[in-house]
Amino acid sequence: MSLKIAFQKPSTQTTLCLGVYEEGHFPSATQTWDKTLKGLLSTSLKNSKFKGKLCQYLSVFTAEGQRIILVGLGKKTDQNEKQWQKIGGSLSFILDVSANGEGAVEIHSLEKSDDAHVAAHLALGALLKSWRFETYFTKKKPDELFSLKKITFLTPDPDAAEKAFKPLSKVAEGVFLTRTVVTEPANVMTPATLAKIASSLEKDGVKVEVLDEKDLKKLGANAILGVGQGSDKESKLVIMRWEGGKKKDDPLAFVGKGVTFDSGGLSLKPASNMEDMKYDMAGAGVVIGLMKTLALRKAKVNVVGVVGLVENMPSGTAQRPGDVVTSLSGQTIAVLNTDAEGRLVLADALWYTQNRFKPKLMVDLATLTGAIVVGLGFERAGLFASDDALAKKLTAAGEDVSELLWRMPLDDAYDKDINSDIADVQNISNARGGGSITAAKFLQRFTNKVPWAHLDIAGVAWTEKELPLCAKGASGFGVRLLDRFVAANYEEK
Ligand code: BES
Ligand code: MN
Ligand code: ZN
User: Where are the domains of the chain?
Assistant: First the structure.
């Protein structure tokens, strides 16, 4: 269930949030209330530690028992979309204490900013932060679950705020779809289930094709088939097309790794934290969520999304270390470690995508390597790009939405480490370090010189701590970034 967002003209409400700039200055809405309440707010401020720092808050009660929560807006000079979203995120958290599950917010007339724009971004932040996955709790009482149901934003022009919020709400819908499929356990989110969810985008106007194992065999996509051959769940390649641009325009392509569970295969992973590998389909989840957002907001652009869906399991039919497969591209691959499976899935998915669609560019997303987590931790995703302009656009889009990237190298010198003694290429490197880079170099061999970027999202797809716009769990990292990347660079205005 999702938080309801409403916009209306200022009115009296039982639980009300008001903004305060850092160092205690009041924006005009708060000033007006302070006058009405005969200085209650300024007195409370004086008598507390609360000073209006970003996302700090203070509860105050009026003589009539109305609850007023003062919320820090940060520095007057720092006001921008990202800041408002963060404040919105803290509103979700703060208002979760309201008795009736509803709260109102009167934060507008900020420094040099238009009220509708402020309200819309506060609302987006609140919505993103409110998302929870509580499907499988059968015994918890309502107050043990997230209980905020509705936030009303009080703003002078509710219609304008509604209009500004509409496209943002479509972004949130895409993010929520991604978070949902990433959070579902691997016994539920199998390749078939995920393919079905992708197919459900047909109702939003996306054209969807699902290739099954028979189709993949016919094509010769043996790299992806090899990864799935130990599992009793059928592997799939799903192609989604959104055609919102001009007919003659080549599409943008987004490709996702969708390993619905990565046990490592016969190169079995250790038991500790293996349960995390249910989110090894996050790349595919992001591509599906992005397609949803683009379709819902009727983006004026042609986009294809391709996801390779497999389960990586050990069994009597599993791929063995040392096996050689002929990939869709014709290149042969020595599979030295069955746990380096994501790159095998992407090898065929990338080749298929460039060969069939001749895209303007390709961006793939994958929880590809543990090594990227060693290098960049949980704050930034790794960006690898064959094209400087593409790298710049992606980095800028990431900064616009607070989904940060860090560019990593792709020098040819790294490439020789994946040459094989028995095949064209091998799926792990002979060298000891640089595991994320050699993984990217492996992918690059299947891009056929189309401008290409690879986002290694292994460290950011899931968060163990609360983030400003995301509760613990699946983050949906990449949906907002790529939506912005598309909107800022490729849509007809
Ligand atoms: N899915 C993992 C990478 C991963 C690790 C994702 C942690 C999310 C969190 C990937 O398939 C994998 O197993 N990579 C190996 C590659 C190695 C065998 C060359 C790794 O990183 O250890
Ligand atoms: Mn693996
Ligand atoms: Zn994996």
Answer: 4-157, 172-489
Q: Is the whole-model pTM more than 0.70?
A: yes
Q: What is the pLDDT of residues 239-282, one digit of tens each?
A: 999 999 999 999 999 999 999 999 999 999 999 999 999 999 99
The residue whose CA has the least distance to atom 5 of ligand 1 is 370
* CATH fold for the domain made of 172-489: Aminopeptidase (3.40.630)
> Is position 343 annotated as part of the catalytic site?
yes
Distance 269 CA to ligand 1 centre (A): 9
- 170, 343, 441, 484: which one is catalytic? 343
Residues 390-446 have pLDDT tens digits of: 999 999 999 999 999 999 999 999 999 999 999 999 999 999 999 999 999 999 999
Task: Please identify which of the residues 51, 82, 269, 360 carries the catalytic annotation.
Answer: 269
Give the integer Cα–Cα distance in Å for 370 and 372. 6
Measured at the CA of 302, the angle between CA 296 and CA 303, to 5 degrees, comes to 75
What backbone phi and psi angles, to 5 degrees, belong to 98?
A: -65, 145
Catalytic status, residue 246: no
Model pLDDT, residue 376: 98
β-strands 332-335, 323-326 pairing = antiparallel
CATH superfamily of 4-157: Leucine Aminopeptidase, subunit E, domain 1 (3.40.220.10)
